[in-house]
Amino acid sequence: MRLRSDKRHQADDVPEGAPAATPGLAVELRGVRRQYGRGAGAVHALAGVDLALPRGTFTAVMGPSGSGKSTFLQCAAGLDRPTSGSVYLGGTEITGMGENELTELRRSRIGFVFQAFNLLPSLTVEQNVLLPMRLAGERQDRRRADAVLAQVGLADKARRRPGELSGGQQQRVAVARALVTNPDVIFADEPTGALDTGTAAEILGLLRHAVDHPPSSPLRTGSRHAHGATVVMVTHDPAAAAWADRVLFLSDGAFADQLEHGSAEQIAARMTTLSARTSRPGAMAGAAA
Ligand SMILES: Nc1ncnc2c1ncn2[C@@H]1O[C@H](COP(=O)(O)OP(=O)(O)OP(=O)(O)O)[C@@H](O)[C@H]1O
């Protein structure tokens, strides 16, 4: 738990003159740019993104192919470094952190759910769920692991290996693993991309439930646990995005539009409009800059 006691980046203890994180936000991006290459061939994958996501919210990010969704997720989750701008997670500025500190932060304060489940096949379901605690050097709390497994409906599968489970069940394990540390934010990258419609709805229902319901017996104190989970999900699927509170639409590396509590049909219509007016080459830089 070294990270939590390290106040260097905390909002309430920033050096004088340094910009502080906005209280109450799980994720904040300020002027985030990510450029690949230089000169005439440069690409502005993120062209100056500002974002403020309150704790306990479910946000979907959509956009045409090449609009910057993966780059956004990677920069917001500390997996990639912006060319410029600032990223704050749970009140902690992560831009400028060293690799070790970032790795520690990802393990203890971010949950990930990927399209391909990314479970370790040689570990049991329970051991997979305990993995973030193990990697973070924390006590492996089996009661907590069993509680989140029960939350995702897999109380009876704790001793199984991932290969013995269906795809939907494996993704439930991944959701349990993302929830187990009560992270500041869960980043989900096409979490239902490999699932059929019914199974996808079950997984999205679990994420929705985690957002709407604070942990009943939080093992850690602190205001961030008075809320349900915060989920940021990249998806191509309007039906998946419709589970979110808000859909943000990326176009040419910038947020171009948003929709609150939209239906799948409304979201699909917005995407069609966006795709029609998007021209990724417009993000080629040399041009603009
Ligand atoms: N490593 C890289 N080097 C150069 N250009 C890159 C790199 N990664 C991404 N890009 C470019 O940055 C832009 C945004 O890419 P990104 O992968 O973030 O888009 P995306 O919205 O996730 O696309 P998709 O939906 O097809 O996965 C694209 O023009 C892409 O070609």
UniProtKB/TrEMBL annotation:
Domain ABC transporter: start-end pairs: 27-277
Annotated segments matching region Disordered: 1-22
Keywords: ATP-binding, Nucleotide-binding, Transport
Family matches, as InterPro entries: AAA+_ATPase, ABC_transporter-like_ATP-bd, ABC_transporter-like_CS, ABC_transpr_LolD-like, MacB-like_ATP-bd, P-loop_NTPase
Domain of life, per lineage: Bacteria
One function term, GO molecular function aspect: ATP binding
Transport keyword on record: yes
CDD domains, A to Z: ABC_MJ0796_LolCDE_FtsE
Record keyword Transport present: yes
Name assigned to this protein: ABC transporter ATP-binding protein
Source species of the chain: Streptomyces lycii
